[in-house]
Amino acid sequence: MALTGFGKRLRELFRSPEFGEEFYADLEDALIEADVGVRTAAESVETLRETARRERITTRAGLRAALRAQLRAYLVSQEIALVPGTVNLLLVLGVNGVGKTTTIAKLARHFKLARGIEKILLAAGDTFRAAAIDQLKLLGERLSLPVIAQDPGADPGAVVFDGISSAVARGADLVIADTAGRLHNREALVKELAKIDKIASSKIAPGAYKKVLVLDATTGQNSLAQAETFHAAVGVDSIVLTKADSTAKGGMIVPICRELGIPFSFVGSGEKLEDLEIFDPDLYVASLLGDS
Ligand code: GDP
């Protein structure tokens, strides 16, 4: 996994010969610096200290193993499973610029090539920005996938409705729908998403409709707030973390899993459409701890 930003400091830390108070304070700092978040960093260090005391761990290998187990236990991962024999809908959420449109194309490519899903449709539900509609159409062309779109300013609920109806008519398996990442204000965004959500829930079979949130690894701690907002608005089923190839620290996966319990499914590792990896929590913890 591409996240290497904070492995280095933790690796250095575990080289120290002393595991006294200073070590724990430095560890807490390193975790915060890595975007693990103040609460989760403090709790991790406290638990590690207790575990070390209880299990009489005094070696660095022992402490590293204990921290690894502890961080791993916080993580939740789950692949996005499709229900066969019906239209599935992935409603893709996220603020502008996080890589939402690129991720939609990456997901379509993944489901087509890696999962053998033949009939996929894209729906341009971000009617707020004309550029978003054009970008999705372009990506659809590149992937030879139909894109259901209306004019800028159209009702996004109607676009999603069209996408689903069109999928039913064509016997398609999957609709991946874009949504606006910013409206005039947060209230308007939440209201619009709730409306789309209502339409989608009434048209799609139970279990075949999932809300996928896209978060940008370079956003750091703010991504926890974004996850909270979208989760409170419509409920998020799965998260894709983009730009993990950047210098991002990427530690926010830990507090998001721990505090919201939402599973991560994929990690974006570049700008190309093939740059999408299945989220592997063991590899992730390894990169956090600077194993490689
Ligand atoms: P949207 O506004 O959320 O739809 O974002 P876009 O899909 O247009 O992406 C914004 C920018 O992020 C573009 O330059 C993308 O190429 C880039 N991007 C998207 N995903 C990734 C990723 O995983 N890694 C890197 N390095 N760049 C990405």
Walk me through what this model shows:
The chain has 292 residues and is of the alpha/beta class. It has two domains: 69 residues, Up-down Bundle (Four Helix Bundle (Hemerythrin (Met), subunit A)), CATH 1.20.120.140; 201 residues, P-loop containing nucleotide triphosphate hydrolases (Rossmann fold, 3-Layer(aba) Sandwich), CATH 3.40.50.300. The protein contains eleven helices and eight strands. The chain has an eight-stranded mixed beta sheet with strand order 3-2-4-1-5-6-7-8, sandwiched between helices. α9 links the parallel β5 and β6. The model has no long low-confidence stretch (mean pLDDT 92). Bound molecules: guanosine-5'-diphosphate (GDP). Guanosine-5'-diphosphate (GDP) binds next to α5.
What labels would you give this structure?
binds guanosine-5'-diphosphate, 13% strand, Rossmann fold, 11 helices, 8-stranded mixed β-sheet, alpha/beta, 2 domains, Four Helix Bundle (Hemerythrin (Met), subunit A), 292 residues
Main sheet summary: 8 strands, mixed
What is the CATH architecture annotation of the largest domain? 3-Layer(aba) Sandwich
The shape is elongated
CATH superfamily of the largest domain: P-loop containing nucleotide triphosphate hydrolases
- Assigned CATH class of the largest domain: Alpha Beta
Task: Estimate what percentage of residues fall within beta strands.
Answer: 5-15%
The name CATH uses for the topology of the largest domain is: Rossmann fold
Strands, count:
8
